[in-house]
Amino acid sequence: LKMSWLRFYLPLHVLMAACLCHSIKAPTTSSQQSFRTDLFNFYHSLILADGKETTVHLMKDIPKRYYFVLEESRVLSPFTITVTPCDVPIEWSILVHKASASFPGKETQGDHDTQEVSQSQKAPSMVSTIFNYKGNSVETYMGMSSHSALYMLEFLSTERDTHITVYLTTDTTSGHLYPELPVDPRIDVIGVGHTTVTLTWKHSPSVLQHRESIQYCLLVNEKHNYKSLCAAETAIRSSGMKLPPTLALSLSPYLLEPQQVMILSNSELSIINKASSGEVRQICMGTKNTYTVPNLSPSTQYYFDVFVVNLLTNASAAYTGTFARTLEEPEPKVTELKDGKVIQVVLDGKKQKSYSLQYQARHKKVHFSFQLCRGQVQVHITKNGKTVASENISGLRYFSLKGKLLDTYLVQLRSTEGSNSSVKVQVSPHFHKPLFPLLPESLKIKSFSKLRTCNSVTIAWLGTQEENKYCVYKRRIEEDQVWRELQSADRCSGPESRHKSEKVLCKYFYDLNVQRAVTTETIKGLDAGTLYLFDVYLFGPSGIPVRYQSKVVKTRKKC
User: Fold this and answer.
1) 537 and 547 Cβ atoms separated by less than 8 Å
2) What region holds the Fibronectin type-III domain (predicted)?
């Protein structure tokens, strides 16, 4: 009986009976039960397609079986089977029903979990196991046969439901579904920085032969190496993220330019919070075999995997993964503070870098002054290494501290917002004049709706018991500018940043009774139905201005 692949179209039980009757002798009494069991197993298996990658879904602790038939030949006929686990380790084996015991075969890419069992090692049996494996690596078995035989592949997952891919081919002359790896498939780390790692690897022979349809893709994550793109895709799907249909790691043929394909968040489905399990980034860079990975975190261990991908078949082969730890972030530069000198610090909110200021006390009492110009800032002060103050500041904040001569104070500033923040800082002995004047209870400007007219508005603000100078400025704005103006205002900027035409007036006032330290002004000459932005600046003895909170008022449209 001569078997061929066309016989896959025959009814399953007819094919089974034909193959088994030809391949084996009638069972003896002692082997009848084993024969019936084997026949039952084969009957409930599925046919494995030749020359096509098959996705197999496995349920926990339930074996799944596939089979294929090799026809009889006068010469040895080669075949290969490649199995790719896409998640947890699995167990799989190859069993054969055949007429002859002459069956040379070997496996490739094996490890200590892999073993080959010959027919001669077991007692005579109608079914022999020629290969088995347990693990989550991509494994390829190469076999040769000259006899007609029925093969069965059995797969089992003992951890959880999962899926794998299986590729069988009996035509080894028409090229490879999977791209080829070089003889040395290792990834070399040739450069490590604070936020970058540079990698290189040897070219795949497939790239040199089919440059238009082959490209390299790199996976970067903080957890572990992935042994296949299939495993990476499963990890991303299990996190709950939806993959773009054309970009879901089975790469689109149109992705020929370097690009980041997707990002994996942690198990809490949060892209922003990367603390628990980090993220997975995939970057495809065409046929370049050297790449510098940017935007990494300092002092962090990353795992790198390179895959060579056939864009026409979506099949891929994995290089041997590597890992590297980025360099520690250098200690921030420390700026020396001098008595009475005011400095302004701009903080990078995106990188969350801190800024350090140091001061050595020349008196027992020290006075720190902070004026928040923009954003939100956290202030942390230590004295000789021990924390003495720590809080988020808004507006103006003073810290009066006591210690000993030559005590060393370290001030660390950090932005608590995603955008840049800015703050002014001054330190001085307690008896010096303070950086900022005595301030009222509130820095808000009040407007009186009933006193609005078509060409004037009336505003009021609080003063203090000290005589200070107050200057009023106005500016016409549009409706769509209000939110931006109020949010982006630099609260440290003085009148020097304003146009001369915006100045309304300057005046001095005070009242010893703080309850009556209030002043009002009516600004005239305005346009009807128009929005105006009003600012008040307070100048104390030091001459450094303090800006009140801006106020937007609209004149009446009709009077």
Assistant:
1) yes
2) 232-329
User: Do 91 and 155 touch, CB atoms closer than 8 A?
Assistant: yes
What residues are paired with 220 via a beta bridge? Answer: 281, 304
Residue 216 belongs to what domain range?
Answer: 177-243+277-330
Statement: the pTM of the whole predicted model exceeds 0.70:
no
pLDDT digits (tens, 9 = 90+) for 21-71: 443 334 444 444 554 555 555 555 588 888 888 889 999 999 999 988 887
- Chain centroid, CA 537 distance in Å: 45
Do residues 50 and 71 both lie within one domain?
Answer: yes
C-alpha 463/C-alpha 514 separation (Å) is 8
Q: Are 334 and 328 in contact (CB under 8 A)?
A: no
Residue 221 domain flag: yes
Cα–Cα distances in Å, from 299 out to 199, 343, 350, 493, 537? Answer: 18, 31, 18, 38, 46
Count of structural domains, the chain: 4
Nearest alpha carbon to residue 305 among 359, 405, 231? 231
Question: Can you give 227-291 as a three-state secondary structure string?
Answer: CCHHHHHHHHHHCCCCCCCCCCCCCCCCCCCCEEEEEECCCCCCCCCCCCCCCEEEEECCCCCEE
Whether residues 326 and 342 share a domain: the answer is no
Tell me the pLDDT tens digit for each residue of 165-174: 998 888 766 6
Instruction: Mention every residue, 6+ apart, whose C-beta is less than 8 A from residue 426.
Output: 340, 341, 342, 343, 368, 369, 435
What is the C-alpha separation between 284 and 126, in angstroms, rounded? 49
Position 398: which residue type?
Y
Domain shared by 162 and 181, yes or no: no
